[in-house]
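Service request form, structural biology core

Requester: graduate student, group of Dr. S.
Request type: structure prediction, single chain
Budget code: on file
Notes: please return the result as structure tokens.

Sequence provided:
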Amino acid sequence: MSETNSAAEVAAPHRYTAAMAADIEARWQDFWDAEGTYEAPNPSGDLAGDAALVAKPKKFIMDMFPYPSGSGLHVGHPLGYIATDVYARHQRMTGHNVLHTLGFDAFGLPAEQHAVATGTHPRVSTEAAMDNMKQQLRRLGLGHDKRRSFATIDPDYHKWTQWIFLQIFNSWYDKEANRARPIEELVAQFESGQRTTPDARPWSELSAGERAEVLGEYRLAYASEAPVNWAPGLGTVLANEEVTADGRSERGNFPVFKAKLRQWNMRITAYSDRLLDDLDGLDWPEAIKLQQRNWIGRSEGARVDFPVGTGGDRITVFTTRQDTLFGATYMVLAPEHELVGRIVPAAWPEGTHDVWTGGHATPGGAVDAYRAQAAAKSDVERQAEAKDKTGVFTGVYATNPVSGEQVPVFIADYVLMGYGTGAIMAVPAHDSRDFAFARAFELPMRCVVEPTDGRGTDAAEWDDAFVTYDAKIVNSTGEQIALDGLGVVDAKAKITDWLSAQGIGEGTVNYRLRDWLFSRQRYWGEPFPIVYDENGTAHALPASMLPLELPEVEDYSPRTFEPTDADTKPETPLSRNEDWVNVTLDLGLGDGPQRYRRETNTMPNWAGSCWYELRYLDPHNSEKLVDPAIERYWMGPREGMPHGGVDLYVGGAEHAVLHLLYARFWSKVLFDLGHVSSSEPFHKLYNQGMIQAFVYRDSRGIAVPAAEVEERDGAYYFQGEKVSRVLGKMGKSLKNAVTPDEISAEYGTDTLRLYEMAMGPLDVSRPWDTRAVVGQYRLLQRLWRNVVDETTGDVTVVDSEPVEDTLRALHKAIDGVGQDLAGLRFNTAIAKITELNNHLTKVGGPVSRSVAERLVLLVAPLAPHVAEELWRKLGHTDSVVHHDFPVADLAYVVDETVTCVVQIKGKVKARLEISPSIGDEELEKLALGDPAVVAALGGGGIRKVIVRAPKLVNIVPA
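Core staff response, request fulfilled:
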């Protein structure tokens, strides 16, 4: 402590300081915990007893699940937590029953990687990180209902995660009813003959394995062999959403390859239309809705079958331009397409072009070599527009169904199995990628859409493809159908009807969305509640065997490989624990105890966050996922919320697709099966911005400690060496992290809360500046001085009524702050509080009790500790947390007069003090009669008078 500060504290021992703030904050946090101040009551099911609760408006407020990092919080992390806390406190003060709590998303790769590196069990490191984070969050004064907190690793929690998985596994999507139904209802349809089996045999004649295989084609959770994203460097497969735009793993930045593996999937594609349509009923940022719509990628077109080879095979394509069928001059299959393995002949057909063979003697050799080459590329690399088009001829031809023409079939890496059918009809004259491929392989191009740019119809002379939806069809008349002269829309309709009538195609809808890959080759995740019998048939564990907990293992790491070694396969940590994997169980199937093998993959880290909003509602229910009455009360549909859901959900925009889409899917399945009344998890979504910080780097590009950098003459130096400065993220690795503990120790937590909320609009990123924190510290000191004598500690307020100017300042602040807090405009709310506090300081003298009390109530949501302390000093025995928020007297909110500016030729000639309710006509008369305006006009004529009551009159002389 400096001598100056020491002397000041001796002279004013009751001044608001960091030390006093620390004492106040610790005392009130203990009080809130002891009194259960933030505990939100649930309905009990007693209609009479619940009447008062149900009559009270509710508000369910959530933050996105935090992951407990071992390094703890920096000041960027609490931005959203403080914001939701301020909003929740305001809602309590305006009469709402508020549910606000926070749990931990504790499964995942970071803890597992830490375990691999240190030998510490992931649960030990995770729980230590959670304990540290809980202490940091408590110090922030967050008003969470702590009874409702949990972690996804708690057995009582992941029991229900596994239970939900089984609900999905034991369900199928009924397209006619447009909802999920229990799998038993599908079995009943097969047993009764209402639905036929794939080979038309009676259900009773199918073996248990055959029945399981049939049902697997319907189940919403199913295992299948399919192309997956394999990251050898991580030793695990990844969902599409976990692969970056440049084809690398989101975590670790490892190369990702395509491999064919048996994995668990979620049939999220069954819900594509509902996931799209229900976005309209959600209060979400339009940018997030657009990202989800684009990810789902609904497109209308047609399915078309092309006969291929001599074995009766057909290549099925999906196209949105069926009007250009006559222009299809070749076809392309994805290298992974299932037909490739069986249609390739032993030798090249006579007359095969050399450029088509890739220099190989046989089609089989060419295809095998090209498939290996394609497997080493990411999807992004394969689809890059600028790259040279590569491929090889398969050695077979397909038949164009409208022209009868034989067209060669290629494989090429620019076609992916993950979109459409993994096959395309190539119309090079009217598709840029097909055009480039056709030029590279000397393939014909036929113009079937008449160019409108004067280039003519000889596509061989073109420099690029002609692509449009607004032109006439040409060169498209065959023996059975003619499209010439039709516009694109009419031609599409006509050809679609014809394809359907011929039985070789139909109008259909396609989606970019793929089924959700749900298996991970990791240890630290929820085990699947699935076992396999000796025939490899999957069986669900009965609910009585849940939770299935992870076994203790010595080696936590999946087997990893060289990052570029694509020709490898996963080996999971669980698979090495034979005693856990191989078990004898009685599953209640009537056959007694049997030998089974457990599933050795684990669920992805997204599983636990797909439903956590429901556990907050009823966290200690061991009998049900959630009590129906409690779920309806907090999340059920109501006016303005057609799908129900959380009232406010705050978090980063980076979860636009991954978490949000997955959670929506789980909600809809649970809704269809009757477990919940809300078909959407989150009604209102708000994306917070990011707190950024300056990153300083030396000449090597290495980050140096920001706290040790000195500024001299506009340049920055670290240990005498000049360093560069750029604004970026805050983090430990960038050596620019500032912890909330540091700021709380120097200024107090309430100052930290105010500063983070005052930095700018909540949804905008903003730079951190520790030097600016002192501004909010001084605001609290001035607030304190307006109530408490710094020398004696006595309350200085008086019981006299305030003067009219103060009343106007007070009620304007009440009105503005209330609206701003309700609208999440915390920075402008603080500005209005500051303005009122400065007014009281400027007026001088003791502050009126009625003003001081209402000022404290305005501050309470933002700086709750100091507000509680001042509220108690003002003589109140109740907590400020549940006190009514002040209500403005609108008579004082409207100014008695406003200043109207009168301009002539854009220059101010007069200022009039007038009523804010004055009309245009009356204001014009006053302006034209003002002596200064009359003198300025000098008797000249007036061409025009523009009146914008009550603030402006603009006169244009003749």
